[in-house]
Amino acid sequence: MDSLVVEEKNGRFEIFAEIKQLGKDLLVILYGGAVHIGAVGMAQPRASLRDPEKMSATSSTYTYIGHKEDAVVKTMSEEIAKRLNKKVVVVAGIHWDELSMKEIEIIMEACRTITERVITEVQKR
């Protein structure tokens, strides 16, 4: 897989994820609205500490001052890493001005949907 783009649209919010396979690892570039880099999340799969028969992931995040994408990159990188058993880096820049709490939840739900679609698309290949 060279690269693949998935998108999710809900009202005025359109979010894209560009997926690149780098050897066995994955790079996901997540963006929407005013495109930029707000946060980076890195996750590595590992056996669960509670149940070594299950997969989990350990992650690290870096967030630029004033940005809120850290929650998205942490969740997305961990979920993809544990479900696909791959090292994953997610770079995210999502921004719209003056969002309400309802709009933030719409964007977060779109990111959860994109996470599932990324996993599905990578599993197909």
Q: What's a concise summary of this model?
A:
The chain has 125 residues and is α+β, with helices and mostly antiparallel strands.
Structure write-up:
This protein is an alpha+beta fold. The protein is built from 2 helices and 6 strands. A 6-stranded mixed β-sheet has the order 1-2-3-6-4-5. Strand 1 (3-10) and strand 2 (13-22) form a beta hairpin.
List keywords for this structure.
2 helices, globular, 125 residues, alpha+beta, six-stranded mixed β-sheet, Ribosomal Protein S5, domain 2
* Total number of distinct structural domains: 1
> Helix count?
2
CATH-defined architecture: 2-Layer Sandwich
* Helix-strand makeup class: alpha+beta
What integer value in Å does the Rg equal?
14 Å
CATH topology annotation = Ribosomal Protein S5, domain 2
Our estimate of the beta-strand percent is 35-45%
Could you spell the SSE succession in H and E letters? EEEEEHEH
How would you state the average pLDDT, rounded?
Answer: 94
Q: Give the biggest sheet.
A: 6 strands, mixed
Overall, the morphology is: globular
Give the terminus-to-terminus CA distance: 7 Å
Secondary structure: helix percent: 25-40%
Largest beta sheet: strand ordering: 1-2-3-6-4-5
